[in-house]
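pipeline/complex-builder :: batch 7 item 3
reading input block
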Amino acid sequence: MIQFNVQKKLDAPGGEMLLDLQGEFPQGQLITIFGESGAGKTSLLRIFAGLLMPETGKIIVNQQTWFDNRKGINLSPQKRKIGFVFQDYALFPNMTVQKNIEFAAKNRQNKKEITDLFDLFNLGELLNKKPETLSGGQKQRVALARAIASKPEILMLDEPLSALDHVMRSKLQDYILTVHKKYNLTTFLVSHDVGEIFKMADKVIVLDNGKITNQGTPSEVFSNKHISGKFQFTGEIIRIEKEDVIYVVTVLIGNSMVKVVSEEKEIHQFSIGDKVLVASKAFNPIIQKIQSK
Amino acid sequence: MIWDPIILTFQLAFITTVILIIISIPISYWLAYTRSTVKPVIETIVSMPLVLPPTVLGFYLLVAFSPSNAFGNWLDHTFGLRLVFSFEGLVLASVIYSLPFMVHPIQSGLSNLSTSLKEASYLMGKSRTSTLFQVLLPNIKPSLITGIVLAFAHTVGEFGVVLMIGGSIPGQTRVASIAIYDEVESLNYDIANSYSMILFAVTFVILFAVYTINGGFLKRFWE
Protein backbone atom coordinates (compact mmCIF):
# COMPACT_ATOMS: atom_id res chain seq x y z
CA MET A 1 0.00 0.00 0.00
CA ILE A 2 1.29 3.40 -0.97
CA GLN A 3 -0.13 6.33 0.96
CA PHE A 4 0.86 9.88 0.31
CA ASN A 5 -0.09 13.40 1.18
CA VAL A 6 2.48 15.90 -0.04
CA GLN A 7 2.70 19.58 -0.83
CA LYS A 8 5.31 21.47 -2.76
CA LYS A 9 5.54 24.82 -4.52
CA LEU A 10 6.82 24.51 -8.06
CA ASP A 11 8.02 27.09 -10.53
CA ALA A 12 5.75 26.29 -13.45
CA PRO A 13 5.82 28.12 -16.80
CA GLY A 14 2.67 29.99 -15.85
CA GLY A 15 4.00 31.17 -12.50
CA GLU A 16 4.15 29.44 -9.16
CA MET A 17 2.05 26.32 -8.79
CA LEU A 18 1.17 24.48 -5.63
CA LEU A 19 1.48 20.75 -5.98
CA ASP A 20 -0.93 19.28 -3.47
CA LEU A 21 -1.43 15.54 -3.80
CA GLN A 22 -3.17 12.97 -1.65
CA GLY A 23 -4.08 9.39 -2.29
CA GLU A 24 -3.42 5.75 -1.70
CA PHE A 25 -2.76 2.84 -4.02
CA PRO A 26 -2.81 -0.86 -3.25
CA GLN A 27 0.27 -2.80 -4.25
CA GLY A 28 0.54 -4.52 -7.59
CA GLN A 29 -1.55 -2.11 -9.62
CA LEU A 30 -0.63 -0.36 -12.81
CA ILE A 31 -1.49 3.28 -12.29
CA THR A 32 -1.38 5.81 -15.08
CA ILE A 33 -0.99 9.49 -14.47
CA PHE A 34 -2.87 11.57 -16.98
CA GLY A 35 -2.92 15.32 -17.46
CA GLU A 36 -1.78 18.24 -19.54
CA SER A 37 1.87 19.11 -19.69
CA GLY A 38 2.83 21.20 -16.70
CA ALA A 39 0.14 19.62 -14.54
CA GLY A 40 2.77 18.07 -12.25
CA LYS A 41 2.91 14.49 -13.55
CA THR A 42 6.69 14.22 -13.67
CA SER A 43 6.99 16.04 -10.34
CA LEU A 44 4.72 13.46 -8.75
CA LEU A 45 7.00 10.63 -9.93
CA ARG A 46 10.12 12.52 -8.84
CA ILE A 47 8.66 13.07 -5.38
CA PHE A 48 7.95 9.35 -5.01
CA ALA A 49 11.43 8.52 -6.23
CA GLY A 50 13.10 10.91 -3.78
CA LEU A 51 14.52 13.08 -6.54
CA LEU A 52 12.36 16.03 -5.54
CA MET A 53 11.71 16.86 -1.92
CA PRO A 54 8.21 17.98 -0.93
CA GLU A 55 7.92 20.85 1.53
CA THR A 56 5.35 19.22 3.74
CA GLY A 57 3.58 15.90 4.01
CA LYS A 58 4.16 12.19 4.26
CA ILE A 59 4.84 9.25 1.99
CA ILE A 60 4.35 5.79 3.46
CA VAL A 61 5.04 2.69 1.41
CA ASN A 62 4.19 -0.70 2.89
CA GLN A 63 4.26 0.69 6.42
CA GLN A 64 7.72 2.16 5.84
CA THR A 65 7.95 5.94 6.04
CA TRP A 66 9.79 7.33 3.03
CA PHE A 67 9.14 10.95 3.75
CA ASP A 68 7.80 12.82 6.72
CA ASN A 69 8.81 16.42 7.13
CA ARG A 70 7.65 16.60 10.75
CA LYS A 71 9.84 13.70 11.80
CA GLY A 72 12.60 14.84 9.48
CA ILE A 73 12.57 11.59 7.50
CA ASN A 74 13.58 11.62 3.86
CA LEU A 75 14.69 8.25 2.58
CA SER A 76 17.38 8.62 -0.08
CA PRO A 77 16.59 7.50 -3.67
CA GLN A 78 19.18 4.74 -3.21
CA LYS A 79 17.02 3.05 -0.57
CA ARG A 80 13.60 3.34 -2.17
CA LYS A 81 13.80 0.28 -4.46
CA ILE A 82 12.42 2.09 -7.46
CA GLY A 83 13.06 1.30 -11.10
CA PHE A 84 12.78 4.52 -13.08
CA VAL A 85 12.58 4.94 -16.84
CA PHE A 86 13.39 8.54 -17.70
CA GLN A 87 11.96 10.50 -20.61
CA ASP A 88 15.45 10.71 -22.12
CA TYR A 89 16.12 7.07 -21.06
CA ALA A 90 19.31 8.13 -19.16
CA LEU A 91 21.35 5.22 -20.51
CA PHE A 92 24.99 5.62 -19.53
CA PRO A 93 26.83 6.53 -22.75
CA ASN A 94 30.15 5.15 -21.51
CA MET A 95 28.78 1.64 -21.05
CA THR A 96 27.53 -0.95 -23.48
CA VAL A 97 23.98 -2.21 -23.19
CA GLN A 98 25.20 -5.21 -21.22
CA LYS A 99 27.30 -3.05 -18.86
CA ASN A 100 24.38 -0.68 -18.35
CA ILE A 101 22.22 -3.54 -17.15
CA GLU A 102 24.92 -5.24 -15.13
CA PHE A 103 25.77 -1.96 -13.44
CA ALA A 104 22.16 -1.66 -12.31
CA ALA A 105 22.06 -5.29 -11.23
CA LYS A 106 25.35 -5.32 -9.35
CA ASN A 107 25.23 -7.22 -6.03
CA ARG A 108 21.56 -7.82 -6.34
CA GLN A 109 20.97 -10.69 -8.71
CA ASN A 110 22.61 -13.84 -9.90
CA LYS A 111 23.88 -14.30 -13.45
CA LYS A 112 20.93 -16.42 -14.48
CA GLU A 113 18.46 -13.67 -13.70
CA ILE A 114 20.42 -11.22 -15.82
CA THR A 115 20.51 -13.53 -18.81
CA ASP A 116 16.78 -14.08 -18.33
CA LEU A 117 16.33 -10.33 -18.62
CA PHE A 118 18.37 -10.23 -21.82
CA ASP A 119 16.13 -12.93 -23.25
CA LEU A 120 12.91 -11.38 -22.03
CA PHE A 121 13.73 -8.12 -23.78
CA ASN A 122 15.37 -9.73 -26.83
CA LEU A 123 18.58 -7.83 -26.22
CA GLY A 124 20.89 -10.52 -27.62
CA GLU A 125 22.15 -8.55 -30.61
CA LEU A 126 22.37 -5.26 -28.76
CA LEU A 127 24.47 -6.35 -25.78
CA ASN A 128 27.79 -5.04 -27.04
CA LYS A 129 26.46 -1.83 -28.53
CA LYS A 130 26.80 1.61 -27.03
CA PRO A 131 23.51 3.45 -26.35
CA GLU A 132 24.21 6.18 -28.92
CA THR A 133 23.97 3.63 -31.73
CA LEU A 134 20.50 2.41 -30.73
CA SER A 135 17.13 3.45 -32.12
CA GLY A 136 14.51 5.05 -29.88
CA GLY A 137 12.61 1.81 -29.42
CA GLN A 138 15.78 -0.12 -28.61
CA LYS A 139 16.89 2.47 -26.08
CA GLN A 140 13.49 2.23 -24.51
CA ARG A 141 13.75 -1.54 -24.22
CA VAL A 142 17.21 -1.31 -22.66
CA ALA A 143 16.05 1.38 -20.24
CA LEU A 144 13.15 -0.79 -19.17
CA ALA A 145 15.35 -3.87 -18.76
CA ARG A 146 17.83 -1.80 -16.76
CA ALA A 147 15.09 -0.43 -14.50
CA ILE A 148 13.99 -3.99 -13.75
CA ALA A 149 17.54 -5.24 -13.23
CA SER A 150 17.89 -3.56 -9.85
CA LYS A 151 14.90 -5.61 -8.63
CA PRO A 152 12.60 -2.74 -7.78
CA GLU A 153 9.29 -3.02 -6.00
CA ILE A 154 7.92 0.00 -7.82
CA LEU A 155 8.42 0.78 -11.49
CA MET A 156 8.06 4.36 -12.69
CA LEU A 157 7.84 5.32 -16.32
CA ASP A 158 7.94 8.99 -17.19
CA GLU A 159 6.17 9.20 -20.52
CA PRO A 160 8.58 6.78 -22.10
CA LEU A 161 6.44 5.94 -25.09
CA SER A 162 5.57 9.37 -26.41
CA ALA A 163 8.48 9.57 -28.85
CA LEU A 164 7.79 6.23 -30.50
CA ASP A 165 5.72 5.31 -33.51
CA HIS A 166 2.54 3.32 -33.22
CA VAL A 167 3.90 -0.19 -33.79
CA MET A 168 6.87 0.27 -31.47
CA ARG A 169 4.63 1.75 -28.86
CA SER A 170 2.30 -1.17 -28.88
CA LYS A 171 5.20 -3.62 -28.53
CA LEU A 172 6.66 -1.74 -25.60
CA GLN A 173 3.30 -1.55 -23.91
CA ASP A 174 3.31 -5.33 -24.04
CA TYR A 175 6.80 -5.47 -22.54
CA ILE A 176 5.72 -3.18 -19.72
CA LEU A 177 2.63 -5.28 -19.02
CA THR A 178 4.73 -8.44 -19.05
CA VAL A 179 7.27 -7.22 -16.50
CA HIS A 180 4.57 -5.58 -14.41
CA LYS A 181 2.89 -8.96 -13.96
CA LYS A 182 5.99 -11.16 -13.94
CA TYR A 183 7.78 -9.25 -11.20
CA ASN A 184 4.64 -8.33 -9.31
CA LEU A 185 5.39 -4.61 -9.48
CA THR A 186 3.44 -1.54 -8.62
CA THR A 187 3.82 0.51 -11.78
CA PHE A 188 3.31 4.21 -12.39
CA LEU A 189 3.08 5.28 -16.01
CA VAL A 190 2.76 8.86 -17.17
CA SER A 191 0.68 8.85 -20.33
CA HIS A 192 -1.18 11.22 -22.60
CA ASP A 193 -2.79 8.52 -24.65
CA VAL A 194 -6.27 7.46 -23.66
CA GLY A 195 -6.01 4.29 -25.76
CA GLU A 196 -2.82 3.35 -23.96
CA ILE A 197 -4.46 3.95 -20.60
CA PHE A 198 -7.39 1.69 -21.46
CA LYS A 199 -5.05 -1.03 -22.63
CA MET A 200 -2.77 -0.95 -19.63
CA ALA A 201 -4.09 0.73 -16.52
CA ASP A 202 -5.88 -0.66 -13.49
CA LYS A 203 -6.30 2.85 -12.28
CA VAL A 204 -5.87 6.32 -13.67
CA ILE A 205 -5.31 9.54 -11.80
CA VAL A 206 -5.96 12.83 -13.54
CA LEU A 207 -3.77 15.77 -12.59
CA ASP A 208 -4.64 19.34 -13.29
CA ASN A 209 -2.64 22.31 -12.08
CA GLY A 210 -0.92 20.31 -9.36
CA LYS A 211 -4.04 18.66 -7.95
CA ILE A 212 -5.63 15.28 -8.47
CA THR A 213 -8.96 16.16 -10.04
CA ASN A 214 -10.27 12.71 -10.83
CA GLN A 215 -9.33 9.09 -10.29
CA GLY A 216 -10.71 5.63 -10.83
CA THR A 217 -10.63 2.89 -13.41
CA PRO A 218 -10.11 4.12 -16.97
CA SER A 219 -13.75 3.60 -17.88
CA GLU A 220 -14.93 5.46 -14.79
CA VAL A 221 -12.67 8.40 -15.51
CA PHE A 222 -13.14 8.67 -19.24
CA SER A 223 -16.70 7.39 -19.62
CA ASN A 224 -18.35 10.78 -20.05
CA LYS A 225 -15.87 12.57 -22.15
CA HIS A 226 -14.21 10.06 -24.36
CA ILE A 227 -16.33 6.97 -24.72
CA SER A 228 -19.60 6.96 -26.51
CA GLY A 229 -21.63 4.77 -28.80
CA LYS A 230 -21.67 7.69 -31.17
CA PHE A 231 -18.87 8.37 -33.52
CA GLN A 232 -17.23 11.55 -32.35
CA PHE A 233 -13.85 13.20 -32.43
CA THR A 234 -12.39 16.50 -31.48
CA GLY A 235 -10.18 18.37 -33.89
CA GLU A 236 -9.04 21.73 -35.09
CA ILE A 237 -10.30 23.68 -38.11
CA ILE A 238 -7.45 24.24 -40.52
CA ARG A 239 -9.29 25.46 -43.60
CA ILE A 240 -12.71 26.80 -44.64
CA GLU A 241 -13.57 26.89 -48.35
CA LYS A 242 -16.69 28.04 -50.12
CA GLU A 243 -17.98 25.73 -52.83
CA ASP A 244 -21.10 26.88 -54.62
CA VAL A 245 -23.75 27.25 -51.94
CA ILE A 246 -22.05 25.24 -49.22
CA TYR A 247 -18.85 25.47 -47.24
CA VAL A 248 -16.25 22.74 -46.83
CA VAL A 249 -14.52 22.81 -43.47
CA THR A 250 -11.28 20.86 -43.18
CA VAL A 251 -10.68 19.56 -39.66
CA LEU A 252 -7.46 18.03 -38.39
CA ILE A 253 -8.18 15.08 -36.12
CA GLY A 254 -5.02 13.50 -34.80
CA ASN A 255 -2.97 13.08 -37.93
CA SER A 256 -5.90 12.79 -40.31
CA MET A 257 -7.74 15.49 -42.18
CA VAL A 258 -11.49 15.26 -42.43
CA LYS A 259 -13.68 17.37 -44.69
CA VAL A 260 -17.04 18.34 -43.29
CA VAL A 261 -19.80 20.17 -45.07
CA SER A 262 -21.30 23.18 -43.41
CA GLU A 263 -24.13 25.49 -44.41
CA GLU A 264 -23.97 29.22 -44.86
CA LYS A 265 -26.15 29.95 -41.85
CA GLU A 266 -23.84 28.11 -39.45
CA ILE A 267 -20.48 28.90 -41.01
CA HIS A 268 -20.15 32.31 -39.34
CA GLN A 269 -19.52 30.65 -35.96
CA PHE A 270 -16.41 28.86 -37.21
CA SER A 271 -12.97 30.24 -37.83
CA ILE A 272 -9.59 28.70 -38.49
CA GLY A 273 -7.94 27.36 -35.34
CA ASP A 274 -11.22 26.67 -33.54
CA LYS A 275 -11.45 23.43 -31.64
CA VAL A 276 -14.49 21.53 -32.80
CA LEU A 277 -16.32 18.30 -32.21
CA VAL A 278 -17.02 16.21 -35.30
CA ALA A 279 -19.79 13.72 -34.64
CA SER A 280 -22.17 11.58 -36.52
CA LYS A 281 -25.39 10.16 -35.21
CA ALA A 282 -27.55 7.82 -37.28
CA PHE A 283 -24.55 6.08 -38.64
CA ASN A 284 -22.89 2.75 -38.15
CA PRO A 285 -19.07 2.78 -37.97
CA ILE A 286 -17.19 -0.10 -39.60
CA ILE A 287 -14.09 -1.44 -37.91
CA GLN A 288 -11.33 -2.80 -40.05
CA LYS A 289 -7.87 -3.98 -39.13
CA ILE A 290 -5.02 -2.07 -40.74
CA GLN A 291 -2.10 -3.75 -39.10
CA SER A 292 -1.60 -6.72 -36.79
CA LYS A 293 0.50 -6.38 -33.69
CA MET B 1 72.96 21.93 -17.90
CA ILE B 2 70.85 23.50 -20.57
CA TRP B 3 68.16 20.90 -19.94
CA ASP B 4 67.87 21.61 -16.22
CA PRO B 5 65.34 24.47 -16.47
CA ILE B 6 63.32 22.48 -19.02
CA ILE B 7 63.21 19.39 -16.84
CA LEU B 8 62.35 21.50 -13.81
CA THR B 9 59.51 23.15 -15.75
CA PHE B 10 57.99 19.80 -16.66
CA GLN B 11 58.46 18.43 -13.16
CA LEU B 12 56.62 21.44 -11.82
CA ALA B 13 53.87 21.15 -14.42
CA PHE B 14 53.46 17.42 -13.82
CA ILE B 15 53.22 17.65 -10.03
CA THR B 16 50.93 20.68 -10.26
CA THR B 17 48.62 18.87 -12.68
CA VAL B 18 48.40 15.77 -10.50
CA ILE B 19 47.51 17.85 -7.47
CA LEU B 20 45.02 19.85 -9.52
CA ILE B 21 43.21 16.72 -10.71
CA ILE B 22 42.80 15.58 -7.14
CA ILE B 23 41.48 18.87 -5.78
CA SER B 24 39.55 20.04 -8.85
CA ILE B 25 37.22 17.06 -9.10
CA PRO B 26 35.52 17.74 -5.75
CA ILE B 27 35.53 21.52 -6.34
CA SER B 28 34.03 21.15 -9.83
CA TYR B 29 31.49 18.62 -8.60
CA TRP B 30 30.40 20.98 -5.87
CA LEU B 31 30.23 23.97 -8.21
CA ALA B 32 28.30 22.02 -10.85
CA TYR B 33 25.56 20.79 -8.52
CA THR B 34 25.33 23.14 -5.55
CA ARG B 35 22.46 25.53 -5.02
CA SER B 36 24.31 27.22 -2.19
CA THR B 37 24.35 30.99 -2.00
CA VAL B 38 28.13 31.07 -1.58
CA LYS B 39 28.61 29.48 -5.02
CA PRO B 40 29.30 32.82 -6.78
CA VAL B 41 31.91 33.67 -4.15
CA ILE B 42 33.76 30.38 -4.64
CA GLU B 43 33.45 30.67 -8.43
CA THR B 44 34.94 34.14 -8.29
CA ILE B 45 37.86 33.05 -6.15
CA VAL B 46 38.59 30.06 -8.38
CA SER B 47 38.48 32.26 -11.50
CA MET B 48 40.51 35.21 -10.18
CA PRO B 49 43.85 33.94 -11.50
CA LEU B 50 42.38 34.25 -15.01
CA VAL B 51 42.27 38.04 -14.81
CA LEU B 52 44.60 38.99 -12.00
CA PRO B 53 48.15 39.89 -13.06
CA PRO B 54 50.34 36.95 -11.99
CA THR B 55 52.58 39.39 -10.15
CA VAL B 56 49.72 40.30 -7.80
CA LEU B 57 49.21 36.68 -6.89
CA GLY B 58 52.97 36.18 -6.56
CA PHE B 59 53.31 39.28 -4.42
CA TYR B 60 50.68 38.20 -1.89
CA LEU B 61 52.02 34.68 -1.73
CA LEU B 62 55.47 36.11 -1.15
CA VAL B 63 54.19 38.28 1.67
CA ALA B 64 52.15 35.45 3.19
CA PHE B 65 54.86 32.84 3.13
CA SER B 66 57.80 35.01 4.03
CA PRO B 67 59.36 33.63 7.25
CA SER B 68 59.49 37.17 8.60
CA ASN B 69 55.69 37.19 8.75
CA ALA B 70 53.48 35.32 11.20
CA PHE B 71 52.04 32.71 8.83
CA GLY B 72 55.30 31.98 7.06
CA ASN B 73 57.06 31.83 10.41
CA TRP B 74 54.50 29.37 11.75
CA LEU B 75 54.86 27.14 8.66
CA ASP B 76 58.61 27.23 9.03
CA HIS B 77 58.58 26.34 12.72
CA THR B 78 55.79 23.80 12.73
CA PHE B 79 56.39 21.94 9.48
CA GLY B 80 59.85 23.14 8.52
CA LEU B 81 58.19 24.32 5.33
CA ARG B 82 59.66 27.34 3.62
CA LEU B 83 57.50 28.27 0.68
CA VAL B 84 59.35 31.28 -0.61
CA PHE B 85 62.19 30.69 -3.05
CA SER B 86 61.61 26.92 -2.97
CA PHE B 87 60.20 24.29 -5.31
CA GLU B 88 57.34 23.51 -2.88
CA GLY B 89 56.34 27.15 -2.95
CA LEU B 90 56.31 27.08 -6.75
CA VAL B 91 54.05 24.03 -6.71
CA LEU B 92 51.59 25.71 -4.36
CA ALA B 93 51.60 28.95 -6.36
CA SER B 94 51.14 27.04 -9.62
CA VAL B 95 48.23 25.07 -8.20
CA ILE B 96 46.43 28.28 -7.29
CA TYR B 97 47.42 29.96 -10.55
CA SER B 98 46.25 27.11 -12.82
CA LEU B 99 43.19 26.12 -10.78
CA PRO B 100 40.58 27.70 -13.11
CA PHE B 101 42.08 25.92 -16.10
CA MET B 102 41.29 22.58 -14.48
CA VAL B 103 38.07 23.46 -12.67
CA HIS B 104 36.23 25.20 -15.51
CA PRO B 105 36.30 22.36 -18.08
CA ILE B 106 35.35 19.74 -15.50
CA GLN B 107 32.59 21.92 -14.07
CA SER B 108 31.08 22.65 -17.45
CA GLY B 109 31.41 19.00 -18.47
CA LEU B 110 29.46 17.94 -15.38
CA SER B 111 26.82 20.68 -15.79
CA ASN B 112 26.23 19.67 -19.39
CA LEU B 113 25.53 16.05 -18.51
CA SER B 114 21.86 15.27 -18.25
CA THR B 115 20.91 15.17 -14.56
CA SER B 116 18.94 12.03 -15.25
CA LEU B 117 22.23 10.07 -15.54
CA LYS B 118 23.07 10.92 -11.96
CA GLU B 119 19.53 10.29 -10.78
CA ALA B 120 19.31 6.97 -12.61
CA SER B 121 22.46 5.83 -10.87
CA TYR B 122 21.16 6.90 -7.43
CA LEU B 123 17.95 4.99 -8.05
CA MET B 124 20.03 1.89 -8.76
CA GLY B 125 21.30 2.22 -5.22
CA LYS B 126 24.70 3.67 -6.16
CA SER B 127 26.38 6.10 -3.79
CA ARG B 128 27.45 9.59 -4.82
CA THR B 129 31.07 8.52 -5.02
CA SER B 130 30.53 5.50 -7.20
CA THR B 131 28.16 7.55 -9.37
CA LEU B 132 30.87 10.18 -9.78
CA PHE B 133 33.61 7.74 -10.69
CA GLN B 134 31.66 5.18 -12.68
CA VAL B 135 29.04 7.29 -14.41
CA LEU B 136 29.81 11.00 -14.42
CA LEU B 137 33.58 11.23 -14.93
CA PRO B 138 33.80 8.55 -17.67
CA ASN B 139 31.23 10.54 -19.62
CA ILE B 140 33.17 13.79 -19.51
CA LYS B 141 36.48 12.37 -20.71
CA PRO B 142 37.05 15.19 -23.22
CA SER B 143 36.53 17.79 -20.48
CA LEU B 144 38.96 15.98 -18.18
CA ILE B 145 41.58 15.81 -20.90
CA THR B 146 41.06 19.48 -21.75
CA GLY B 147 41.49 20.40 -18.09
CA ILE B 148 44.62 18.30 -17.68
CA VAL B 149 46.26 19.62 -20.81
CA LEU B 150 45.38 23.27 -20.20
CA ALA B 151 46.52 23.17 -16.57
CA PHE B 152 49.78 21.53 -17.62
CA ALA B 153 50.39 23.97 -20.45
CA HIS B 154 49.47 26.97 -18.34
CA THR B 155 51.93 25.92 -15.64
CA VAL B 156 54.65 25.47 -18.24
CA GLY B 157 53.93 29.01 -19.41
CA GLU B 158 53.83 30.83 -16.09
CA PHE B 159 56.34 33.55 -15.43
CA GLY B 160 55.13 36.32 -13.16
CA VAL B 161 54.18 34.16 -10.21
CA VAL B 162 57.40 32.18 -10.37
CA LEU B 163 59.47 35.31 -10.63
CA MET B 164 57.86 36.80 -7.54
CA ILE B 165 57.81 33.79 -5.25
CA GLY B 166 60.48 31.55 -6.70
CA GLY B 167 63.22 33.81 -7.93
CA SER B 168 65.80 32.09 -10.05
CA ILE B 169 67.62 29.44 -8.05
CA PRO B 170 69.15 26.88 -10.45
CA GLY B 171 67.68 23.41 -9.97
CA GLN B 172 65.16 24.78 -7.46
CA THR B 173 63.07 27.50 -8.99
CA ARG B 174 64.79 28.41 -12.24
CA VAL B 175 62.17 27.18 -14.67
CA ALA B 176 62.42 27.64 -18.43
CA SER B 177 60.50 30.91 -18.64
CA ILE B 178 62.75 32.46 -15.98
CA ALA B 179 65.86 31.04 -17.61
CA ILE B 180 64.92 32.69 -20.89
CA TYR B 181 64.53 36.04 -19.16
CA ASP B 182 67.87 35.65 -17.37
CA GLU B 183 69.71 34.67 -20.53
CA VAL B 184 68.28 37.61 -22.45
CA GLU B 185 69.31 39.93 -19.64
CA SER B 186 72.85 38.57 -19.94
CA LEU B 187 72.62 38.90 -23.72
CA ASN B 188 72.95 35.11 -24.26
CA TYR B 189 70.48 35.11 -27.12
CA ASP B 190 71.47 31.62 -28.36
CA ILE B 191 70.62 29.88 -25.13
CA ALA B 192 67.44 31.94 -24.75
CA ASN B 193 66.54 30.88 -28.26
CA SER B 194 67.03 27.16 -27.46
CA TYR B 195 64.75 27.36 -24.43
CA SER B 196 62.20 29.33 -26.38
CA MET B 197 62.18 26.90 -29.28
CA ILE B 198 61.60 23.96 -26.96
CA LEU B 199 58.76 25.71 -25.14
CA PHE B 200 57.28 26.84 -28.45
CA ALA B 201 57.28 23.30 -29.84
CA VAL B 202 55.93 21.70 -26.68
CA THR B 203 53.15 24.25 -26.32
CA PHE B 204 52.15 23.75 -29.94
CA VAL B 205 51.97 19.99 -29.50
CA ILE B 206 49.94 20.26 -26.31
CA LEU B 207 47.36 22.66 -27.70
CA PHE B 208 47.18 20.76 -30.96
CA ALA B 209 46.34 17.67 -28.93
CA VAL B 210 43.53 19.49 -27.12
CA TYR B 211 41.89 20.67 -30.29
CA THR B 212 42.27 17.29 -31.98
CA ILE B 213 40.70 15.54 -29.03
CA ASN B 214 37.87 18.02 -28.64
CA GLY B 215 37.18 17.93 -32.35
CA GLY B 216 36.53 14.23 -31.89
CA PHE B 217 39.31 13.27 -34.31
CA LEU B 218 40.91 10.95 -31.81
CA LYS B 219 37.72 9.46 -30.50
CA ARG B 220 37.73 6.45 -32.76
CA PHE B 221 41.18 5.46 -31.52
CA TRP B 222 40.41 5.14 -27.87
CA GLU B 223 36.91 3.75 -27.99
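note: Residues 105 and 143 of chain B are 5 Å apart (CA to CA).
queue -> next item
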